[in-house]
Design goal:
This is Thioredoxin domain-containing protein. Keywords: Redox-active center, Repeat, Signal. InterPro entries: PDI, PDI_thioredoxin-like_dom, Thioredoxin-like_sf, Thioredoxin_CS, Thioredoxin_domain. By secondary structure, this protein is of the alpha/beta class. The protein has a six-stranded mixed sheet with strand order 6-7-9-8-10-11. A five-stranded mixed sheet has the order 1-3-2-4-5. A five-stranded mixed sheet has the order 12-14-13-15-16, with helices on one face. Helix 7 links the parallel strand 8 and strand 9. The longest helix has 21 residues.
Length: 388
């Protein structure tokens, strides 16, 4: 019996060691550096033991989360601590079972335990909730917009509508964890400084992780989204370079009464049947895929691979924009309304690309994400669809 246990322990150790060698994205902390490292940035940490079967099964999902989030411009790090070798940390953190997952907000050494199901949509929603909760300000009694440094106006659900009801407003819709938003932040403050004494326009921002209703109303589907709003209505989405001079030139152009073709006018001139790309939600998903071929991208806005695929996916949608029976769509799995949908569709990583035919799942695409390869994939199944 003792020999059996010894052999079993050996194989469990070898299996765990081989698994750790494959985990190239997850950061490993020890007794020596744990406290110092979590003080530098937001962290989501898995406390585990190599022999723990549940830990071994969960490790691939944790590594997948780390691959998506452990990038240079990310606002959070995904890490782990081996409690069999670094027991002092685990004892201090009151770890009594494996795996235990704890979120550490920047500046707070007291971790919050994750108690949900261990799937990617649940983990990412938990991350969003913790970042949002940590950044919330005590503004319950505030009824006027908060004017920040250099004239930048921060809008909330209570102040947005009344503030933009009249006049010109250039508004940044963002998420705190978004790397591109973080890079834009100092430039946006500089732009606000340029117009802080100008009565013709205000430079503002909206945190979509806190003010979801506003962002849904203005159909914000990615971060950062920069919108020009006049008298409460969206006029144009800024799509140019995000340098100060480019942004300022756009503002000056938009201030001219006849200086630009309005986006709202352009949209009304586009026949509805030519629009084949759109963001689906749990409420519109069934209707959106019920006929023809539907190629759907399930994604998370903060996912690096998703960001790199985004312009290619837009080009794919444009390419098939006038093709009957083809719909190129996407679903944001980080939104609470879509959490169950992504679970039901078996989404375990981002981006996941699934082809549907007449409402039924046909194929999960795992090939190259180049425009040519994706286009050939759609054409192949379109031809098969036409032959039926």
């Amino acid at each position: 019996m003792n020999i059996f246990l010894l052999v079993l322990s050996y194989f469990l150790y070898v299996s765990a060691s081989a698994q750790e060698q494959e985990e190239v994205h997850t950061i490993k902390y020890t007794n020596i550096n744990f406290s110092d490292e979590i003080a530098k940035k937001n962290h989501f940490v898995m406390f585990y033991a190599p022999w723990c079967v549940h830990c071994q099964k969960f490790s691939p999902q944790w590594e997948q989360l780390a691959e998506m989030l452990n990038e240079d411009d990310s606002d959070i790090k995904i890490a782990k601590v081996d409690c069999s070798t670094d027991s002092k940390v685990c004892l201090k953190e009151d770890i009594t079972g494996y795996p235990t997952l704890k979120f550490y907000k920047l500046g707070d050494s007291n971790g919050i335990k994750f108690r949900g199901t261990r799937d990617l949509p649940s983990l990412t929603n938990f991350i969003n909730e913790q970042l949002r909760e940590g950044d919330e300000k005590d503004q319950e009694s505030e009824e006027v917009p908060q004017v920040m440094k250099h004239g930048l106006v921060e809008l909330t659900e209570k102040t947005f509508e009344s503030h933009v009801a009249t006049g010109n407003h250039f508004v940044k819709f963002y998420a705190p964890w978004c790397g591109y938003c973080q890079k834009l932040a100092p430039t946006w403050e500089e732009l606000a400084r340029s117009y802080q004494d100008n009565n013709d326009v205000t430079i503002a921002k909206v945190d979509c992780t806190q003010e979801r209703k506003i962002c849904d109303k203005f159909e914000v589907k990615g971060y950062p989204t920069l919108l020009w709003i006049e008298n409460g209505k969206k006029i144009e989405k800024y799509k140019g370079e995000r340098q100060h001079d480019n942004l300022k030139a756009f503002v000056e152009q938009m201030k001219q009464p006849d200086g630009v073709t309005r986006e709202s006018e352009e949209v009304t001139d586009v026949p509805p049947e030519t629009i084949s790309v759109g963001e689906l939600t749990a409420n519109t998903f069934k209707l959106g895929i019920e006929s023809g071929l539907s190629f759907v991208k399930f994604f998370a806005p903060w996912c690096g691979h998703c960001k790199r695929l985004s312009p290619i996916w837009d080009s794919l949608a444009e390419k098939f924009g006038k093709t009957d029976g083809v719909h190129i769509s996407k679903v944001d799995c980080t939104l609470n309304v879509n959490k169950q949908l992504c679970n039901d569709e078996g989404i375990e990583g981002f981006p996941t690309l699934i082809l549907y035919k007449d409402g039924a799942k046909l194929w999960e695409y795992t090939g190259s994400r180049s425009l040519d390869e994706l286009s050939d994939f759609v054409k192949h199944h379109l031809e098969r669809h036409d032959e039926l």
